[in-house]
Amino acid sequence: MSLTSIFALGIFVITLGLIISEKLHRTVAALAGVATLLLLRVLTPSQALQYVDFNTLLVLMGMMIVVSIVKKTGVFEYLAIVAAKKAKGDPWRIILFLCAVTALISAFLDNVTTVLLIVPMTFVITKKLNMNPIPFLLPEIMASNIGGTATIIGDPPNIMIGSRAGLSFMDFILNLGPIIALVFAAVFFVLWLLYRKQLKIDEETKKKIFELDESVCIKDKVLLYQCGAVLLLIVLGFILHDVIQMENGMIAMTGAVLLLLLSRSDIETALLSIEWPTIFFFASLFVLVGALEEVGLIASLAGLITGLVKGNLLLAGILLIWFSALVSAFLDNIPFVATLIPLIIGLGAQGADITPLWWAVSLGACLGGNGTLIGASANVVVAGLASKQGYEITFKRYLKIGFPLMALSVALSTVYLILFYL
What is the pTM of this model? Predict the structure, then answer.
């Protein structure tokens, strides 16, 4: 390893250690890591900017603005009361309902967009039930990442894999749908075992839920229609972004600006609704991972797999799913998957049927995001929203639940691959 590579790896590990230790706010730790990279000239400022995924940041900022305006209509309160009544005031039924909706929407929309819509409803429900929202939020994070694995448009690695491997929307649904349904059921059974004692409310509180009148929650019907129309346009834009040749970030920001114009909302209030610590944390994380990519460490990791498997499809599949999951729990899975793709294609050039390897990488890279608090965008966004409400989802707290459940998900996926593909 060169001195530059040692610096890049050392700074990443130290920064990760500071985030895990929680002695510094995660955004401060990440910014300090980036500053050190620049001071030691591992990256130049222009190189650092090249690794920042501005598309993701624009999606985050645009949807945060949209959600802040949607909140004014009272629709989140309305939906929360309806959901609570349908679940007969039972907290676990409410969680299951919210998570099923989260997983379903995440299969077709960006996970961040999904949690930005679901989490405000969660806060409303938990306030009505006088409960801690954390047992609701952690399952929703899991659901967003699990649901996003099921389709070609649900997670960026799947888009990349589908494009290079020539796999269709239905290919992903038919091949990954069954195992994702099983993973969802298994994960939520474990979560029920963990939280069943905490998720109890007395009959008096349940009665209060049914006394609530959801019809009075809608404060501005005109604004609600405006928000509904703009959200529909944004969703259609996300689905058709390849056809209209617009990045999701531009679609989200265009929708935000359109809604600002229609609603005549105050721009200062809208900008204050953006979770700026979360935005800067993401930007810093992109640079930290970019430094590893710049010095060739991510390519070396991928090359290590190729050297180990030596054409053995079964071994290749098992290594790829677990290695992808472990790496994706700590690093941005997009550059890692981008590096793996040509290596898998290379294995195919040797005459092997590499289709199972695509499923292995998809399952590992997407489900691996559930492993740690920084494993996926949705995780960090939910933690930021919770912090704003006065609840902290710490790295250690998330790790104790997220990592074992991620391991369970990948273990089930590995058995599925071995039984049906490898």
Answer: 0.75
